[in-house]
Amino acid sequence: MAKTKRKRLTLNKLFKLTAEFFGRKKLSDWEEVSYKGSDWITEIGADSFWFTLLDAMGEAQVEEALEITVEKNNIFVIPLSPKPKVMQLANDLLSFYHSKGLNAFISDEEIGGLDIEEFNKVEKIKL
Amino acid sequence: MCGIVGIYGEQALREYQKNLLYAWDRLKHRGEDSYGVIIQKTNGEVVAYKSLSKEALLSKLAEEEGKEFTVESLKWVLAHNRKASVGGITLELAHPVYNKDEKTLVIHNGTKKPLAGAFGTDSDTQALSIIFSIGKVEPKVRLLDGTGVVFCVRKTSKDRFKLYFHKDEERPLVLNKELGIFASEPFLEGEWYQVKEIPFKELKDLSEIVNLIDDKVSESVVIRKCSLCGREFVGSPKETHCKDCSEIYYDRYGRAYSSYKITDTTKKK
Question: Do B50 and A122 touch (CB under 8 A)?
Answer without folding.
Answer: yes
